[in-house]
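Bumping my old thread because nobody answered last time. Still need a sequence for this structure:
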């Protein structure tokens, strides 16, 4: 079973093999980011997909609350001028309430 973050190789009879990283999995569809930073949604045919490096989900779940609190998300501006973090994409924006002083 392919998971988000897995490095894969996709074989093709029409061209050279391509390596990429799985960005999303929806049923049998995979969203893959290639080294050129392009993304493709595809449903691989049987025998065409090889997992090169599986993600290690144990390390992600073993983080402590203290260590998790120290990390900061990168902040970028959206076209509307609002701040967005990498996990809120174009159409989804989170609104957070700031405590009043």
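Sorry it took so long. Here it is:
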């Amino acid at each position: 079973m392919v998971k988000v973050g897995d490095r894969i190789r996709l074989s093709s009879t029409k061209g050279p093999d391509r390596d990429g990283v799985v960005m999303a999995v929806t049923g049998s569809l995979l969203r893959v980011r290639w080294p050129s930073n392009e993304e493709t949604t595809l449903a691989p045919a049987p025998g065409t997909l090889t997992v090169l490096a599986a993600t290690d989900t144990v390390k992600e779940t073993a983080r402590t609350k203290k260590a998790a609190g120290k990390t900061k998300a990168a902040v970028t501006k959206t076209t509307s001028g609002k701040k967005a973090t990498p996990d809120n994409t174009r159409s989804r924006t989170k609104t957070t309430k700031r405590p009043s002083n």
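Strands lie at 7-10, 18-26, 29-33, 39-42, 49-53, 76-77, 83-84. Let me know if any region looks off to you.
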